[in-house]
Amino acid sequence: MTDTSTTARRIVFVTGPSGAGRSSALNVLEDAGFEVVDNLPLRLLDAFLDVPASAQPLALGIDPRNRDFSTTVVVDALGKLTGIAGLAPELLYLDCSTEVLLRRFSETRRRHPLAPDDRPSEGIVRELEMLGPLKARADVLIDTTDLNVHQLRAEVEHWFAPGGKRRLTVSVQSFSYKRGLPRSVDMVLDCRFLTNPYWVPELRSLNGTHALVEKHVMADPRFEQFAQKVEELSLLLLPAYREEGKSYLSIAFGCTGGQHRSVVMAQFHALRLAEEGWQVSIRHRELDLRKNEET
User: Fold this and answer.
1) Which one of 58, 92, 259, 260 is least enclosed by Cβ atoms within 10 Å?
2) 16 three-state secondary structure
């Protein structure tokens, strides 16, 4: 990956399947100080990048609906830019599950741009297959399946610091095994061996952000050693990821319902990493979903 010193100009290619939030992400980057160019035809890419660069970071929206779209051209452009001193190119990929993409198109009644005979499911599958090489090449991958527009803004702002200075960011989240593993995470840790507050009547309706639940989970004699080992592992991996040029590390803690033990562990671990000086974001998948349902 390109050396991202403070003098390097950040150039972010933004892509992903239709309906995953690419336009919203570009709006966030523009608000963050990036020069944004959307739907740039790839045949014009070389000429555009040959223009004398300014210090302002650049975000390029790459739309797979363009006639001249080619994953090979995009990957080659990233490789070419990587070898140019003073530039810090990277690829932001907005991902989303097929089911949610289909629901979004159904709710908005939009026609999928790659769908024949107005069958969005076929267009979605075709587009995801087309974008496969870019997803594999992504420097930053944000899964928008469970994100609303405000959460997406927070994620994009977190990965792309003001001024275009890239740094390794840690995402810590909690989840429920009942709803399946979160997508696109680097480390998954199971908290189901810890004492479960669900079986304590006065704690059942609370969640892991409540002091009483936190106290109950942390009272488990295995909690302290588990938390310490996870912290040691994270602090071993984070510098190594940074040295390899990775932009982010995602850590997920799971329990049965995603309400108590995993939330406590995610909160505790995120705080410890922040105290060690790492840039940390935190998200509780099941708690966020419940909030959205209530509103």
Assistant:
1) 58
2) coil
Domain at 39, CATH number: 3.40.50.300
Paired with 141 in beta bridges are 93
Amino acid at the residue 245: G
What pLDDT is attached to residue 4? Answer: 43
Which pLDDT tens digit goes with each residue over 103-152?
877 666 566 665 656 677 777 888 888 898 999 889 899 999 988 888 88
Give yes or no: residues 67 and 142 share one domain: yes
Contact 211, 268 (CB under 8 A): no
Cα dihedral: 192, 223, 151, 161 (round 10): -140
Better-predicted residue by pLDDT, 110 or 19: 19
Domain, as residue range, for 188 = 169-294
Residue 151's DSSP bridge partners are none
Q: At 173, phi and psi to the nearest 5?
A: -140, 160
Pair 221, 253 in one domain = yes
Confidence of residue 2 (pLDDT cuts 50, 70, 90): very low
Does residue 3 lie within any of the structural domains? no
Residues ≥6 apart with Cβ < 8 Å to 138:
91, 92, 93
b/e per residue 218-229 (b: at least 16 CB within 10 A): eebeebeeebee
Phi first, then psi: what are they for 24, rounded to 5°? -65, -40
Cα 62 to its chain centre, rounded Å, is 18
